[in-house]
Amino acid sequence: MTTALLQVSDITAGYRPDLPILHGVSVSVSEAEMVTIIGPNGAGKSTLVKAIAGLVPISSGTVSVAGSNVTNLLTHKLATASIAYVPQTANVFTTLTIDENLKLGASTLSKAEGARRIAMAYDNFPVLQKYRSHKAKVLSGGQRQTLAVARALLTEPRLLMLDEPSAGLSPLMVSEVFERLKSLVSTGVAILMVEQNVKAALAISDRTYVLAEGRNRIDGPSSELAGDSQVATIYLGAGGRKR
Amino acid sequence: MLQALADGILTGSIIALGAIGLTLTMGILRFANFAHAELITWGAYMALGVLAITGVFAGPIGPFSFGLPLILATLVAAVLTAALALVVDYLVFRPLRSHTNHMTVVFSSFGVSLLVRMVILLIFGGSAEYYSDELQIAVRLMPGLRVMPDHLFTLGLTLVIVIALHFFLQRTRLGLSMRALAENPDLVRINGIDTRTVVRWTWIIGAALAAVAGVLYGMTVQLRPEIGFQLLLPLFAAAILGGVGNVFGAVVGGLIVGLAESFSVLFIPAGYKMAVPFIILLAVLYVRPSGLFGGMRGGAK
Amino acid sequence: MSGYIAYLVFFLIVALTYSIVVMGLNLQWGFTGLFNAGVVGFFAIGAYGTAVLTGPDRAELIGGFGLPFPVGVIGGMILSTLAALVVGLATLRLREEYLAISTFGIAISIQLVALNFDTLTGGAQGLTGIPRPLFATFGSPGAYNLFYLGLVATVAAVVYFGLQAALHSPWGRLLKAIREDETAAASLGKNPAMVRLQAFVLGSTLMGLAGGLYVGFIGYVSPMDFLPILTFQIWAMLIVGGSGNNRGAIVGAVGVWALWTMSGFAISRLLPVEYQSQGGAIQVIIIGLLIVLTLLFRPRGLIGEAQSVSRHVS
Amino acid sequence: MKKMLLSSVFGLGLMAGAMPAAAQTASCEIPVGAVLSITGSIAAIGKAIGDAGQLAVDQFNEAGGVAGCTAKYVLRDDQGSPNVGVDAAKTLVEIEKAPIVLGAIQSGVTMPILTSVTVPGKVVQISCCSSAPSFTQLAQEGGTDGYWFRTLPTDRPQGVVMANIAKAKDYKKIAVIYVNSDYGVSLARSFKASFEKLGGTVTSMTAYNQEQASYRAEVNSAMQGDPDSLFLIAFPADGATALREWISFGGTQNLLLSNALRADEFVKSVGAKFLTNAVGIDNAQTEGPSVEAFNKAWEAKFGQAPNGPGLHTMYDAAAVALLAMEKAGKPDGTAIRDNIREITQGDGEVIYPGPEGFKKAKELIKAGKPIRYEGATGPISFDANGDVTGPYLIWGVADGKLTTVETWDKMRVADAIAELDK
């Protein structure tokens, strides 16, 4: 195995230094691999991707991308680290138009290059083209998700991080979104995705990490975990212990 | 009646200019800056200082009471006001922004406002000053309506600034980033934009507009260290009425507040005029807290 | 009685009156995180309310009911409460900034009413000859001032212990919880907006109480007593003393007022006459710097937040 | 409670530490306290008023001091704020041990000092400048115990004189713009009553609040009703703003100006060319040897004529206080109070301002002979309420300078009032 594209080693992180949410979590993602993170509520799944994105301070441990250390990177330098990130909620600017949302996503690029890639995005996602001069607040949940992903891809990242892309979507939409993500991986983009829907996550991804209470519990190829009774135990057990 | 309308529009356009800066900082930086009024005063006095130091009086242009020196002084004042805003942000607001209670920043702006006003008092003294000792006589346009050329200039300049700012916010990357920042700072960072730069530019633009408003205001009234402070309530009323963060709204809000003040004098004693913005403010908060046109962010928590 | 003692008594009457205002503000800011930018307005309402209710009847005035002093003070408190309700209800469900702006506005408006509604407030002339409670009972002004100091100190003590008790009650713990984590408090089924409103209104009522005591002592009230600078002074007292702590509020009131009067004294002594006109500005700058520097470098003030409160919470 | 006790001790320590000088050196210095607005809205006139008090004290010391000691002028700034003023007065009375407090300027500051410091402390208070009628009312109700005096007349006679002047100028419809303070309100009311009695019309009474940046709304509402003249009752800074806006918007230049506007600063700010048709009033007498004596001394010291409100009256306030103290022989408020009328009324030898005059007064007092002080404002006589009626001067502006147009002596003022009251 070559060096991982993303290597998260033993990080401790939390909004306040005295109240860590993650306690020594490690995750790795290889090139063109789709990795999902699952776990019960309060496991620290979202905190993990936020910490990688520099939105939650890391107090110990390291994050590196393609061998270079990006621990506690300033969030606006995500793009230079070849990472794109789609948050779970509020992932588009509802007061801006679709076009403006995309322009903002291209602001690290030159004007001409930005315009070229935005045009490509419109080709790939015709629904955005249709609403390009509308405020993003008119979009449905799925369309917003599409916009957010399209925006994230403008910088042509090597790693795309998504926080629960299926949240709040109809089953039909979920499968559509997942299809699209799968085809992305086939173009060489690695994906690290937080997912609530265990079944779907295990079905789509190459590997899966199960977190609980801010710690690694199990990980391995998704196909193996799908049949693992331990996964269910973690969900139930953690829920039971949490009171 | 006609005169009250004209006066209201004039006062309103000055309130509007000040309120644009306030609404931008309030919307984008997310705090009610009580010291914004002092940026206005500071700008007005800096222009006065530049006039006093250079001392060149090149004579007024056309029908106006001012000449090239004041225009140049205004540009210098805008730079100095932006500098003050950046220094204050660096020394006071930025360190406090991480504070758990975000109202601490609002409160500190209250203290800053006091400090700036008193420093102006120390430097320039408390007595009234004028850019020009010459009195400009109003031109009678029609029976019951007199306007001063300076006032028409003020109105025109306000319009130009509003249009320019509108294009800036709509058409440039920086303007786009500012609007985005008002909605969701984290998402702006995720998009690869350094919000610190955007914050700095917001201060620069807000402060420069404050300085221009200060000079225009100082041209129509007398300069004293309290001029900005007395505008504070009208500014807040205008910004909230128009919707926080909404530039166009701030202009309409400013005009409404100015007209309301002006017309109120026809019905209530002039002494209560200063309470008019407060009444408007209360009414907006009770009826439509997000303002007439909605803001970059609503008033609700 | 020596001059220093006489002055000290006078000084403490004023300082302790302010300490009641500061404790009211502490309830709003220190314990609830509400920024009241119009402290002076609520103080003024209490003062005018008391003056109108207790003052002598005069032909040109609406007021002058000649009521007993305690009735007047309570009346003033009720008026402050109502004013606080008006701005509080308007901003109840909005971001806290809106409360700050509204309180700033109400202070200005109240000053305008004081200045312009002359049949009620005496306008710029103010209301004169307001009876000082039990003044005739005491032979000398010195003795009277001692009595009044006792009265103010007693009221301040009652306010202090009353507030301490309230803060250690379930309601006080709820306040603290809301300040620390509003969403969590809300999820416990408490209405944070309503609790905040209660704290705001109660704090404003205390300011009204202090206004009544002030009028009882000075025997005169005019719009000039309630300039915006007083709001800054009160804030400086709270911040320097240590917000979130009522002992800090009292120490801050006495300390900052001492600093203020002594700096005035020093300026009149030390500055040559030609620079005296700058003296007032220097005094205010000292207060402003005190506020900003304390916030930046010693956010807990002289006496930090009382640990006892947070112990109950956690 | 313990904390409070502690802090009082702390406060006491600070006080004692900060102010030892006053207690020790006062062995033979008699403090003459003054509380004036050196800063704040009327700072423009406050500083010069302070100088006038200083001048009187210096001259008295030149003449050999007061009651066997040196008089020490202690000026405190009230910042135009009552609580600061009261505190300043309290330190003057309790710590400096001043038997006399001069001031304040604004009635809003003077009144609380009177009711909460000087009257309870049995200290004489003489104001140069507070003209509100409420002091007369308080004195009539017995609230001043006689410790209250003022050296400038109340506003009523001023209103009467101005009404007569307006009539003489043949103004028919006058707009009144007045500062919303005790001074402005009472003068405006007195003028309106007098002018209407004389057959004129007051088209509007517009109050303005101090220290605003603009008075356009007030000016506009005053212009309603087409007045042929304007009576402006204001302090110099705000007055200049209001008048500039009045003139800018085409208001009449038939102007009547109140006493507080007699200041070079006002003329300069408005522009002398707009004031050629303006007449103002001031409560001073510009003729007679006693006035000359003051004017000369002022010019010698400050290099310019004593133009400005309150200078003459402040000087007289200080001089009257010092002479009464000399007569009383001790720095005691009650004794000073009882001697004030002794040195201003009766048939004693006339005393003029200046070191020679004060020297003469001291000798006469020593010899047990009566004196009568005629001051910078001419003869002074306090009535039972501590008020004076005084002579007036009418001023105008010519060649950019303040000039005196005519004078009204006390007889003429009294006649005019009597005529009106008929």
From TrEMBL, chain C:
InterPro entries: ABC_transp_permease, LivM-like. It is a multi-pass membrane protein. This is Branched-chain amino acid ABC transporter permease. Signal peptide: none annotated. It is found in: Cell membrane. Pfam families: BPD_transp_2 (PF02653). Its main location: membrane. The chain crosses the membrane at residues 6-27, 34-55, 67-91, 98-117, 146-167, 199-220, 226-242, 249-268, 280-297.
TrEMBL record, chain D:
Pfam families: Peripla_BP_6 (PF13458). Keywords: Amino-acid transport, Signal, Transport. Residues 29-348 form the Leucine-binding protein domain. Transmembrane segments: none annotated. Residues 1-23 form the signal peptide. InterPro entries: BCAA_transport (IPR051010), Leu-bd (IPR028081), Peripla_BP_I (IPR028082). Belongs to the leucine-binding protein family. This is ABC transporter substrate-binding protein. It comes from Neorhizobium turbinariae. The lineage of its organism: Bacteria, Pseudomonadati, Pseudomonadota, Alphaproteobacteria, Hyphomicrobiales.
